[in-house]
Amino acid sequence: MVYKNNWKYFQEDLILSYLANMLRCEEGQSGPTYDSLQDVIDKKSFRPSVNLSSPTITNISFTLYAILGVVSQSQILTTFLWLRLYWFHEFLIWDPEACDGITKISLPVKDLWTPDIIVYDVDDDVSQACPYVYVNHTGHIRYDRMLRLVSACNLQIFSFPFDIQNCSFTFGSYMHTIKDVRVSPALSFKEMTVNSKRYLQASGEWELVDILGDTNILKFGIDEWDIITFWVVIKRRPILYVVNLIIPSSFLMIIDILSFYLPPHSVDRSSFKMTLILGYTVFLLIMNDLLPSTANGTPLIGIYFSVCLAFMTISLLETVLITCVLHHNSMKYREVPHWVQVLTLNAWFFCPLASGTMTLDVPELRQISQDLREMNTYLSIIRKEDHLQNQWCHVGYILDFLLFRIYLLIITGYALVIICMWCIWMNQ
After folding, report:
1. pLDDT > 90 fraction of the chain, expressed in percent and rounded
2. Pair 205, 237: CB distance under 8 Å
3. Residue 278: what pLDDT?
4. TM spans, by residue (predicted)?
5. 174 phi and psi, to 5 degrees?
6. Which of 68, 70, 162, 176 is the most exposed place for a label (fewest CB within 10 A)?
7. Does 10 have pLDDT greater than 60?
8. Domain presence at residue 306
């Protein structure tokens, strides 16, 4: 019966309906009678509402008890929740004064109607449901469930190991539309966050940042379902990866930089750098399992390692170039090009040797003079070779100094960019 214009009659009708549906309590019994409860149990197949046109409100809250694992390859989040549902049963109402002051009883959940609330975005749901529910004398029911959820989550791993993930849990009725079942949060999102942080255990490398939520309507064809979505924001604890990945890689890069202080004319520098590259490659192979990987992205730390390996390779090529300048036999009789002189030696001048002629009339003196000229020519050639070798050595040292400073400047800039990006993500 609908009352549109007379609110007094409508209130009276509600009071009479309330009194008619109250459970009976007999003398000597603590709580409603078995017969009155049996009447409720017999109606468990029907939604507990006097007026079936009014929906049943289901309040939902949960406590995030544990973050069991995050698998980046398959985009899977595994969590353990304490789920709590509240709803109003219009046929489970009694007067505590007539029932020895009893205000709460527990009943088997299989004997009562329960809302079919499920988690939509879940791959696997391992539920440890409590076999009983708590019923208040006002008809409000509380039902607790422990859920191990394996849910899909769009993981963003670019900022690994300083990444923050935002995963969603969507709760709603499976069969009942918005006309029959409505959902709403039982607690504020801040209260759920505080409770979860208080009881969060076995979180491993993850910590809870916040729990957010919103209610929405799911439309499918002409039907609509009321749903509520919780966003669980979690943050990775990066200390494990900083110690095992970033610090060892930084040490190897520092050793590569310090290797430039080895004598460039020694072949030990090139062999040392080759050994260092080999060691860094083995390090990456060993630590590859610690790096997350997905089909839609690569973490920044993977790019960081690749660039570090590229820098080491460039460093080795620089050493090969300097060694070639210092030790290549084809440069023995070749003068330093003019543009190299301008870039490295600035300017230099050759001072020609003074030569004179002398007329000899005596044959013996003429022979001696010829021998001396040949010896002078030979010594000039040797001095010129030594001078050219010294020039090439000078060019090699200057190039080594210049390329080392450029290499050091590029690495410093690269390190500052990476550190700034990670610091920004850590402070989000």
Report:
1. 13
2. yes
3. 92
4. 239-262, 274-291, 303-326, 406-425
5. -85, -40
6. 68
7. no
8. yes
Total domains in the chain come to 2
Owner of token pair 């929740």: 81
Is pLDDT at 424 greater than 90 in this prediction? no
Q: Is the pLDDT of residue 326 over 60?
A: yes
Asked if residue 294 is part of any domain, the answer here is yes
**DSSP SS3 for 127:** strand
Residues ≥6 apart with Cβ < 8 Å to 346:
none
Q: Which amino acid is at 34?
A: Y
Any idea of the CA torsion for 399, 400, 405, 407, to the nearest 10 degrees? Answer: 110
Residue 44 burial (10 A CB sphere; 0-12, 13-18, 19+): middle
Helices assigned H by DSSP within 300-362: 300-327, 338-340
Residue 187, in any domain of the structure:
yes
Is the model's pLDDT at 287 over the cut of 50? yes
Phi, psi of 299, deg, nearest 5: -65, 155
d(CA 115, CA 210): 27
Q: Which domain holds residue 107?
A: 7-237
Let me know if 124 is exposed, middle or buried by CB neighbors in 10 A (0-12, 13-18, 19+).
exposed
- Per-residue pLDDT reduced to its tens digit, 85-100: 999 998 888 888 888 8
Bigger pLDDT: 421 or 235? 235
Torsion, CA 364, CA 366, CA 368, CA 371, rounded to 10: -140
Looking at the DSSP bridge assignments, the partners of residue 164 are 235
